[in-house]
């Protein structure tokens, strides 16, 4: 009996004090990575004179390489919901900023965006096939390369306080590129269905994704505006309803297996065009949205391995170079017809450089359906993201300064406030 009491007492004590060796969970490492990302962001801003987001990306890449024994598949999967939430907020915000009236009045901007997107897709897909990639991987990689990161573009605009013709066109083209990339990948996925012998899915799946996403976006935009319009516009707490609506829509796209990028972007467009008085938009839905973006950028560096560089490194470098060349050439070719000078056209073409979470999301959706195609595609896209997250924001920030639209120059005062 005494032995039993002793055993119970020892078990009770073991629950009161930490056991050795200490075994911190995933939350400990995520918190540590965020602290490191915050410090890296400030280091990037103050010492390197680069946007903070470059430091966040570098912290994520270092965490992935140095913590390979800690960062397991389960931990990476858990960060997926945070990436989805950050993207959902940014896509809805970017859709809300897209003015259809402006696009109708300036159709050359729409044509320029369509031309540079098709040029990017075609050039990347053709060259990747030429250097050895399979047709399916090349076509999908080219479609994903069309995208311009909505989160990084909005983060740069807010951090640099950029305003002007190039900045407004950059936001519009980033929104359009996101729509094009999502649509291209959905259609290419339908082609993959036929390659794998599922002709019914090849016809019905892309149609379901495109039509279903548009219908859901229309319903969300209408319903969201009907609710939001009955609340006080100057009450910042009313944005909680909007955030909840965005996250609810994100959940619906997962349940209904629809395209999240198309749905959220188009829902923002529908929401905006319900009234003539545009709402004052809080930058990235406030601090919570900014935190999600930091988590997203850090998380995107975690899955990258040395094996990915061995499989997709050469293709990724080719994708990045060709993508920049195509976007610059496309904008310079037609940008002057929309009222831009050659200097502004060059700045806009270069500012389209960032590529981030949307590319990861599109790649992940393909990999989930067809692992055989998804694995080499994932290696290429993850390596391309590692390059673009470090250099894309630097190029875009330089381009906005070159256009003379930056109100806070991080080179001159360490970032300013």
TrEMBL record:
Residues 39-369 form the Cation/H+ exchanger transmembrane domain. The chain crosses the membrane at residues 20-41, 53-71, 77-96, 108-131, 137-158, 170-193, 199-219, 239-260, 280-302, 309-326, 346-364, 376-400. Signal peptide: none annotated. Its main location: membrane. Keywords: Membrane, Transmembrane, Transmembrane helix. Pfam families: Na_H_Exchanger (PF00999). InterPro entries: Cation/H_exchanger_TM, Na+/solute_symporter_sf. It is a multi-pass membrane protein. It is found in: Membrane. One of its GO terms (cellular component) is membrane. GO terms for molecular function: antiporter activity. GO terms for biological process: proton transmembrane transport. This is Cation/H+ exchanger transmembrane domain-containing protein. It comes from Cupriavidus taiwanensis (strain DSM 17343 / BCRC 17206 / CCUG 44338 / CIP 107171 / LMG 19424 / R1) (Ralstonia taiwanensis (strain LMG 19424)).
């Amino acid at each position: 009996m005494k032995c039993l009491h002793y055993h119970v007492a020892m078990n009770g004590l073991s629950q009161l004090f930490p056991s050795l060796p200490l075994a911190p969970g995933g939350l400990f490492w995520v918190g540590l990575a965020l602290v490191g990302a915050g410090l890296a962001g400030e280091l990037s801003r103050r010492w390197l004179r680069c946007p903070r987001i470059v430091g966040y990306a570098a912290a994520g890449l270092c965490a992935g390489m140095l913590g390979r024994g800690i960062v397991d598949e389960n931990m990476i999967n858990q960060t997926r919901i945070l990436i989805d939430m950050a993207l959902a907020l940014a896509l809805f915000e970017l859709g809300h900023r897209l003015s259809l009236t402006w696009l109708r009045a300036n159709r050359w901007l729409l044509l320029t965006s369509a031309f540079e997107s098709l040029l990017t897709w075609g050039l990347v897909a053709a060259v990747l096939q030429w250097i050895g990639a399979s047709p399916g991987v090349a076509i999908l990689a080219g479609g994903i390369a069309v995208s311009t990161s909505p989160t990084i573009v909005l983060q740069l605009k807010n951090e640099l306080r950029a305003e002007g013709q190039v900045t407004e066109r950059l936001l519009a083209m980033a929104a359009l590129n996101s729509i094009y990339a999502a649509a291209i990948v959905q259609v290419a996925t339908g082609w993959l269905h036929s390659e794998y012998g599922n002709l019914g899915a090849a016809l019905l799946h892309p149609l379901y994704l495109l039509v279903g996403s548009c219908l859901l976006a229309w319903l969300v935009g209408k319903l969201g505006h009907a609710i939001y319009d009955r609340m006080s516009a100057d009450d910042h707490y009313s944005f909680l309803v909007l955030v909840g609506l965005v996250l609810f829509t994100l959940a619906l796209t997962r349940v209904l297996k629809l395209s999240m990028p198309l749905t959220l972007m188009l829902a923002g467009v529908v929401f905006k065009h319900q009234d003539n008085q545009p709402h004052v938009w809080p930058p990235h839905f406030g601090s919570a949205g900014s935190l999600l973006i930091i988590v997203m950028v850090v998380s995107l560096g975690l899955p990258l391995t040395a094996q990915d560089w061995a499989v997709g490194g050469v293709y990724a470098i080719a994708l990045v170079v060709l993508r920049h060349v195509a976007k610059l050439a496309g904008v310079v070719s037609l940008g002057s017809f929309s009222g831009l000078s050659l200097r502004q056209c060059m700045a806009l073409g270069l500012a389209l450089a960032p590529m981030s979470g949307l590319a990861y999301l599109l790649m992940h959706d393909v990999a989930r359906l067809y692992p055989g195609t998804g694995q080499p595609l994932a290696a290429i896209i993850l390596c391309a993201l590692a390059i673009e997250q470090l250099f894309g924001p630097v190029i875009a920030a330089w381009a906005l300064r070159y256009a003379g639209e930056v109100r806070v120059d991080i080179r001159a005062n360490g970032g300013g406030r």
